[in-house]
Design brief:
Helix content is about 50%, strand content about 20%. By secondary structure, it is an alpha+beta fold. The chain has two domains: about 210 residues, Multidrug efflux transporter AcrB transmembrane domain (Multidrug efflux transporter AcrB transmembrane fold, Up-down Bundle), CATH 1.20.1640; about 220 residues, no CATH class. Strand 14 and strand 15 form a beta hairpin. It is elongated. About 35% of the residues are buried. The mean pLDDT is about 85.
Length: about 550
Amino acid sequence: MSWAELASDRKVQILAIAILISLCAIFLRDLNPTTVDLNFGIEFIGGVRIPISLEKPVDAATMSQMVDTIKTRINKFGLKQAVVRPLGNTEIIVEIPRADSSVIHSVESILREQGRFEAIVDGKDALTGDYIIPSAVGGPQAEFVNAQAGGGYQWELLFAISGDGEEHFADVAQGKYGYAVLMFLDRPSNAAVIGDRGIVLGDAGLTGESLVQDALRKEGDDILLVYADEFQARSAELANKSIVVLPEGFKESNPEIVSALRVMGFNETFAEGEAATHKLAFKPDEDFKVQFFVGGSLTQPVLSTWKAIGLMSAPTLQVEPVKKNAITQYTISGSVPSGENAQQDAVNEIRSLKSVLSGGRLPVSTVVGSYYDVAPQLGEQFLIYSAIGTILAIIAVATLIIIRYRKLKLIVPIVFINSMEVLMTLAIIGTIGTLDLAAMAGVITLIGMGINDQLIITDEMLKNRGKLKEASSKQREIDAKERVAKAFYVVFTAAGIAIASMLPLLLSGIVEITGFALSAIIGVLVGILLTRPVYGLLMEKMYGYTSED
């Protein structure tokens, strides 16, 4: 076999194409060849960790469900590099590589949502999240952000509900033309809201008061609104409520109200095993201002948004729905006031709502803790150490070859093939997943696994070569192919055992080791499908068709 014939072999050509694609994935995804475009984990490029505490301990199945739900929400938001992992049975850690403050705040907002959607018409549940089709929330033709004439941006998100949902909505909304469809996300149950009258109503006056009271109504579960100036007179009404929602600012402006609530048994946190029967929920002060809309053909204000109770949108029924069992589309809309980042804020509103509506609800309530940074300088050190470890492993391979075979010409093909395996494995993991410390450990381990297979092939080719000195070239070619086939039987068996041993780790759900298992499995597949066959051809060329050393 000549070198030209070797280069024309399909196995060599496929490997060359795979190497080229890997180089493009690593260096040319952003069309800038001077940067590395792999998805690195938080250990390498820095970022933030956000702790999430569960209200009570959960079993393994529930924890897995919560991790999957949070992953879905974050991926829908566009952060596929984020890592979500359980910590014991009461905490979840979310890691976001290379995140700026706006992304962090948006993700925190997503994580705080429990994911319970409901639409209420005239105090009755017309829709719930069970009717929403997760794959039909938003999309290229179902998300809109438009500049408003008076400043700011209007946003719209379209979603689809099932036929059963359409029938239920039609039953509830029958004869309700002109009523508001109050769309809530995580409307508090058995709750009370405390706020300053002037902040809640603004300039809306009596009309606003009436709209606010309508928004609080739900059959069997009205929300109690208590203004700060009447708290003392009405505090007894709070005794049977499970949750009280009040502004963060009350801790400083109305500490006596906060203290009184604590005396009544309302708290923010509870000891493990303690039932959260009376909970305090603090929200940003701006969430308590009710947003009203006036404009167009409207002569009176209508309710738009009230984040303190989870009211996201309140469109008016313009037509009475016709009862039919068919998938139907609805819209949630909102607005963002003028500001430097108003357009991006509107986009983030859509992303956040979309991620929760399509990601499902959490089975257990959660509390999002304060995030903390992982310095990128430390991550750069991790990356340098990993690169050094990889290079040292390859040098160790070359040294082993020299000691074992005393043939310098074997160094080039073995080290080249081994390096290409590492390159392609890094490209695959860093493109479809996240390259973290566990994955890098798997890649470094792959170097040893790869060299072991190549030594098996090399030993088989060098074994008893002296007996073929007088053989014809045809006999030597047949013998070389038989030896390679014999070596590959061992190689494929070892690969199967390696993959089988890694599968339990991959399916364990333990994030710290799944990266290691995944990189090892991908590396083994790259080896047996792409690089080992080519190495076998090289050994045939170097030792199979000639009787000379």
